[in-house]
Design brief:
By secondary structure, the chain is an alpha/beta fold. About 40% of the residues lie in helices and about 25% in strands. The chain contains nine helices and 13 strands. The protein has helices at about 5-20, 35-45, 50-70, 85-95, 105-120, 160-175, 190-200, 205-220, 280-290; strands at about 75-80, 100-105, 125, 130, 150, 180-185, 230-235, 240-250, 255, 260-265, 270-275, 295-300, 305-310. The strands form three sheets. Strands 1, 2, 3, 4, 5, 6, 12 and 13 form an eight-stranded mixed beta sheet that branches. The chain has a three-stranded antiparallel beta sheet with strand order 7-8-11. Strands 9-10 form a two-stranded antiparallel sheet. β1, α4 and β2 form a beta-alpha-beta unit. α2 packs antiparallel against α8. The longest helix is centred in the N-terminal third of the chain and has 19 residues, at about 50-70. It is globular. The model has no long low-confidence stretch (mean pLDDT about 95). The structure holds N,N-dimethyl-L-histidine. N,N-dimethyl-L-histidine binds next to β11. InterPro entries: EgtD, EgtD_Methyltrsf_superfamily, MeTrfase_dom, MeTrfase_EgtD-like, SAM-dependent_MTases_sf. Its EC number is 2.1.1.44. GO terms for molecular function: L-histidine N(alpha)-methyltransferase activity.
Length: about 300
């Protein structure tokens, strides 16, 4: 059975078995995004309580002329992630690049969204790259001589603990090179009640997104985790400046995954995601620690979300 598992499933199995056996049980957040998880995240972005997506989109729309004034025309835009049907066109329409390079590990999704963009921008050279942007990879040929602009919206940087966020920023810098620019979205610190509501919506969509991780374990790894014995929990960690998602056992449970047995007492938790929130100085310091000098910053009127332009 094991020999037939693909690399992704083997990596998932390794992370789940090691994560659940750890003294503080935790599973990396990247495993939340199978097909179902990605659909549920899409639903989350439309929830009234989940302000980041709509705030960032409106902000990009509003400030794009100012962003464009600080960026060279005819550049290559390298987006870390497959690109969003709403945010990416705002940038492409605003700055008229010569090439657009979306980078994502999910080949099917990447190719589909790249084809949509190519239809919308027939004169733009769209070059999708299937790669895990958390690891080293090469840019495609043909970008020589073009100024390079990295695009990392969505506050995805917040899902990395600061030491790995700065490593990732440094990797972007190495990839894009001297004199490149980075346009990055970061969610701001705010009232804790609003933060918690954004990650624990009354309709239970975020709960379903979190619990889907256990369903995925059962589906892909043949586990017998009693999903109904776990509850979604979103909590603010003040010391770490982050929202944490957990799955908390509501009763004593025992289950098996691939022949390995796990016992969780009522109240024990599995940590499934971090979403760090930054004040203005924290955000700028993190960029500096990652090798990027902030040169301009825009926020919405409530200062809920920031879009920062930095240069290498
Ligand atoms: C993808 N990422 C930026 C989202 C966030 O807000 O941290 C993931 C998410 N998790 C629960 N709701 C949204």
């Amino acid at each position: 059975m094991l020999a037939t598992l693909d690399d992704q499933t083997l990596a998932f199995r390794k992370d789940v078995l090691a994560g659940l056996a750890a003294p503080v049980p935790a599973i990396p957040a990247r495993w939340l995004y199978d097909r179902r998880g990605s659909e549920l995240f899409d639903d989350i972005t439309r929830l009234p309580e989940y302000y980041p997506t709509r705030t960032e989109t409106a902000l990009l729309q509003q400030v794009m002329p100012q962003v464009a004034a600080r960026l060279p025309a005819g550049a290559a835009v390298i987006e870390f992630g497959a690109g969003s049907a709403t945010k990416t066109p705002i940038l492409l329409k605003g700055i008229h690049p010569a090439a657009y390079v979306p980078v994502d590990i999910s080949g099917d999704y990447l190719r589909a969204s790249a084809a949509d963009l190519q239809r919308e921008f027939p004169n733009l050279e769209v070059i999708p790259v299937v790669a895990d942007f958390m690891r080293k990879f090469d840019l495609p040929g043909g970008l020589d001589g073009l100024p390079r602009i990295g695009f990392f919206p969505g506050s995805t940087i917040g899902n990395f603990v600061p030491w790995s966020a700065t490593n990732l920023l440094r990797q972007f810098r190495d990839l894009l090179g001297d004199r490149s620019k980075l346009l990055i979205g970061m969610d701001r610190l705010k009232d804790v009640d609003r933060l918690v509501a954004a990650y624990d919506d009354p309709r239970g969509v975020t709960a379903e997104f979190n619990l889907n991780l256990l369903e995925r374990i059962n589906r892909e790894l043949g586990g017998d985790v009693p999903v109904d014995a776990f509850a979604h929990d979103a909590r603010w960690n003040e010391m770490m400046s982050r929202i944490e998602m957990h799955l908390v056992a509501t009763r004593d449970v025992t289950f098996e995954i691939d022949g390995q047995r796990f016992d969780f007492a009522a109240g024990a938790s599995i940590h499934t995601e971090n979403s760090h929130k930054y004040g203005p100085n924290g955000a700028r310091l993190m960029l500096l620690a990652g090798g990027w000098t902030p040169i301009a910053e825009w926020t919405d009127r409530q200062e809920d979300f920031a879009v920062i332009l930095a240069e290498a």
